[in-house]
Amino acid sequence: GPQQPLGAPGVDAIGSFVDAGGSALFLIDKHQVSPESPMMYPVFTGLEGFLEARGVGTDAGVVLDYGSNSRISMGQQGSFNVVRPYPLWPIAVRGDPHPTTRDLSGLSLGGGTILTVTDTAVQRIWVTTELGAIQAAGGIIMPDALLEPDRNNFQTLTVAVALDPNAADDDEPSGTGDDSATGGRMIVIGDVDFLQEQFLQANPQNLVFTLNAVDWLAQDEALIGIRSKLRTPPVLAFTSEFQRVALKWGNLVGVPLLFILLGLVRVTGRRRRAETRWKGAPA
Q1: Is 23 inside any structural domain?
Q2: Is 103 in a helix, a strand, or coil?
Q3: 27, 71, 77, 144 from 74: Cα distances, Å
Q4: What is the mean pLDDT of residues 97-116?
Q5: What is the Cα 107 distance to its own chain's centre?
Q6: Average pLDDT of 209-229?
Q7: What gap in Å lies between CA 145 and CA 180, rounded to an integer?
Q8: I need a surface site. Which of 22, 83, 164, 206 has the fewest CB within 10 A?
Q9: For residue 1, is it within any domain?
Q10: What local confidence, expressed as pLDDT, does residue 1 receive?
Q11: What CA–CA distances, in Å, run from 262 to 133, 176, 254, 259?
Q12: 3-state secondary structure of 76
């Protein structure tokens, strides 16, 4: 992510480019991991005012998702490798329908920045589940030290948006129908880390979405429909930890137990039929 804010000349140049019809992809990271301690601290990108003027706000907090997230290894404990969910690495789900997310189911993030939408022309293309939450900047990021969530504050949060101010049809999800609108297409993603190798390997849909975004920004969407069919199975999203645990143990214990019960029923039935035949046989 950014190490220092972009200066005014750079912001003005970007604004002139977009206003003249140029398209742009913004990867916004409003926080950095502290090199001295396992904490995140907020950073200023310099693009806050530019994005706010176009209906996209950025929050200094860090997004969490307790319903859809990556699982990380906590190392060996005895002979077992302990794996646990890590809400600070959310797997976003599709929001508003958009060409870039066609046939995709999830975008794996490495600590996302929350985006707020203040213009109806802006589409929320990736969001958290209803179990999304906000951690204030400066909070501890160690998996085993995260604070218990306040379930009263769960909400759906936006982590990626798209804007096409030149869409001419009111019925188009990305447009406003205002023929006087000017400017190029924009996609804003509240994360930089999702393009790192570990996230691309864990979720190939990250790369597919990025290529789709480039095609959409270039107004060359012919390959999106073909590329999006080459995807991994959809990510399972749970509304509670109980559902996750129930599915896990149901697969590990429930399915084998079901086969055992079926076997016992068959053996018992066969034994009863054999006894019936012997009892009915002439002496």
Answers
A1: yes
A2: coil
A3: 29, 10, 8, 9
A4: 92
A5: 4
A6: 81
A7: 52
A8: 83
A9: no
A10: 54
A11: 44, 60, 12, 5
A12: strand
The two structure tokens encoding residue 247 = 């599915």
Q: Tokens for 257?
A: 């137990």
Residue 261, domain extent: 240-283
Cβ-based neighbour number of residue 190 at 10 Å? 28
Q: Is 0.85 topped by the overall pTM?
A: no
Same domain, 82 and 220: yes
* Residue 30, helix vs strand vs coil: coil
d(CA 73, CA 61): 25
**pLDDT, tens digit, 9 for 90 and up, residues 252-271:** 777 788 878 887 888 787 77
Residue closest to 212 by CA, chosen among 149, 204, 111: 204
> Is residue 2 assigned to a domain?
no
Strand ranges in 43-117 using DSSP code E only, listed in sequence order: 56-65, 69-77, 80-94, 107-108, 113-117
Between CA 115 and CA 156 the distance in angstroms is 11
Residue 122: what are its φ and ψ, rounded to 5°?
Answer: -90, 130
Token reading at 240: 């509670």
The distance in angstroms from the start CA to the end CA of the chain is 90
Does residue 1 sit in helix, strand or coil? coil
Distance of alpha carbon 158 from alpha carbon 55, whole angstroms:
13
Residue with tokens 């975008």: 107
Residue 85's identity, in one-letter code, is P
Name the residue type at position 90: P
Residue 265, domain member (yes or no): yes
Partners of residue 135 on adjacent β-strands:
62
Q: How many CA atoms lie within 13 A of 221 on its CB side?
A: 10
Name the residue with tokens 């990025």.
Answer: 210
Which stretch of 1-10, 152-161, 183-192 has the lowest confidence by average pLDDT? 1-10
Q: Show the tokens assigned to 15.
A: 């604004």
What are the φ/ψ torsions at residue 6 (nearest 5 degrees)?
Answer: -70, 135
Number of domains forming the structure of the chain: 2
| Beta-ladder partners of 132 | 65, 155
